[in-house]
Specification:
- The structure is a single chain.
- The protein has 17 helices and 14 strands.
- Helix 8 links the parallel strand 7 and strand 8.
- Helix 11 packs across helix 12 and helix 12 packs across helix 13.
- The protein is globular, with a radius of gyration of 24 Å.
- It binds nicotinamide-adenine-dinucleotide.
- The site of nicotinamide-adenine-dinucleotide (NAD) has 27 residues, from helix 1 and helix 5.
């Protein structure tokens, strides 16, 4: 099929590259010239496992093209994916200006039947509004469908190619047929294709993210309870997660969720609640607990250093909002680093992928270390803020040699407590008892 993808960010680039890899001819459009230049040279502007390889392969065989030219992309394509950003406005509702910039033009370029697929997360009713707007721009027949994206950054390619389900919000039979043809080879089973009306599909996306954010805030509250009662949240998570009604995912206690989706979509739901005169009490609490988790980690650091961080040398592992991404949008790690800096700590920071992005956006006088072991040099404590796999396999004997004090404050519960039984470290984590060195 001939496909255009408008907006080549985390969702659009992954969508474009994966569809090209499925054999489709894909034109990716963006208005960011610097990003396009990189992409045209085969360089991924974001870090996502497996992305670079697929990008290079499909660019080489010319199944994938990157351009600024929206008109030509629309003219040459049958299906047009809209993957534009919908960030939060100050009051929490999503800002649809980027989407509408494209919508205002797109119908004028139709030269035959076109299927517009909205992948951006949008308020209920937007797909129908887009359809109405486009109908005034063209004489050609078309359909607009809402097809929410559920990929997770850090495993986006894997998720795109192996989705739990594909939701398609449409009332058009032709759109249904085209998207079945597109998605069936990817998902393999017809049962995983879920068709519904546009409004329910739009609501489904927000409900999914709101529920996942709720799970995270819930387990963090239970972690705080465990901490006070000297129980171990790891065991509680295991114990409840094996219940099929609960499930094991998103039960990892820590410093809370971040990224470009959960905070924005929870804020949007709260704004939609205000719009309809409904108070989402659960989601208010989810948001509050999420902010509180960051503050709790800082409290732990302050408590350990007797409320004074001025001049303390602290190593930090992790800036990205989660492992396997360079994305620092709404990252709890970045919020914590910024706060520790304001409290006077001298910071030596390392992240495997997010250092460049952080250097670009953070205006802090901190040391960006070359690797995780350099970061801990002469540090009085190591603070872990992102769950990168390589941090899990760190050699503590190396840390012990170069740190000036053996203290780990772990905001991601990366290590089982028994790892510290024979290590001469103080280990402070979330929702679990503090481990102190046997010698103390
Ligand atoms: P992003 O900011 O990474 O990418 C958006 C891209 O659109 C950028 O490259 C930007 O330059 C481009 N763009 C902006 N205006 C444009 C215009 N007028 N013409 C052409 N290109 C333009 O955003 P993202 O994270 O990919 O998210 C896109 C949408 O998908 C959002 O609605 C988001 O909520 C949703 N979503 C994101 C994720 C995720 O994990 N990031 C997951 C599911 C859904």
């Amino acid at each position: 099929m001939k496909i255009a993808v408008i907006g080549t960010g985390y969702v659009g680039l992954v969508t474009g590259v994966c569809l090209a890899d499925q054999g489709h001819l894909v034109i990716c459009v963006d208005n960011d010239k610097a990003k396009l230049e990189l992409l045209q040279k085969g360089q991924a502007p974001i870090y996502e496992p497996g992305l670079s390889e697929l990008l290079l392969q499909n660019l080489a065989i010319k199944r994938l093209v990157f351009t600024e030219d929206l008109k030509t992309a629309v003219e040459k394509s049958d299906i047009i994916f809209l993957c534009l950003p919908t960030p939060s406005l100050p009051e929490g509702a999503p800002d649809l200006q980027y989407l509408w910039q494209v919508i205002k033009q797109v119908g004028h370029y139709f030269n035959g039947y076109k299927l517009l697929v909205v992948k951006s997360t949008v308020p209920v009713g937007t797909t129908q509004q887009i359809s109405l707007a486009v109908s005034k721009q063209t004489v050609h027949s078309f359909a607009v469908v809402f097809n929410p994206e559920f990929l997770r950054e850090g495993s986006a390619i894997q998720d795109f190619l192996n989705p739990d389900r594909v939701i398609i919000g449409t009332s058009s039979n032709q759109a249904r047929q085209l998207l079945t043809e597109l998605y069936l080879p990817i998902i393999g089973e017809f049962d995983k294709l879920i068709f519904m009306d546009e409004r329910s599909a739009e609501a489904t996306k927000y409900a999914a993210n709101a529920f996942l954010a709720t799970k995270i805030s819930f387990i963090n509250e239970i972690a705080n309870f465990c901490e006070a009662k000297e129980a171990n949240i790891d065991l509680v998570s295991l114990g409840i997660g094996l219940d099929l009604r609960i499930g094991p995912h998103f039960l990892q206690a820590g410093i809370g969720y971040g990224g470009s989706c959960f905070p924005k979509d929870v804020a949007a739901m709260l704004a939609f609640g205000q719009e309809i005169g409904y108070n989402f009490k659960i989601l208010e609490a989810v948001k509050t607990v999420n902010q509180q988790q960051r503050a709790l980690l800082i409290k732990k650091v302050l408590a350990f250093f007797k409320q004074n961080l001025v001049g303390r040398v602290l190593a930090v592992w992790g800036l990205a909002f989660k492992a396997n991404t360079d994305d620092i949008r709404e990252s709890p790690a970045v919020a914590i680093v910024t706060e520790l800096y304001k409290l006077g700590a001298t910071l030596q920071v390392f992240d495997p992928q997010a250092m460049l992005t952080a250097q670009r956006y953070l205006n802090l006088n901190i040391t960006y270390a070359n690797d995780m072991y350099t970061a801990v040099n002469q540090a009085e404590a190591l603070i872990i803020l992102t769950d990168w796999p390589e941090f899990k396999t760190a050699e503590f004997s190396r840390l012990a040699k170069v740190m000036s004090a053996r203290v780990v404050i772990d905001g991601r519960n990366l290590y089982p407590l028994d790892k510290f039984e024979n290590l001469d470290f103080t280990y402070i984590s979330i929702g679990r008892p503090i481990v102190t060195p046997k010698s103390s």
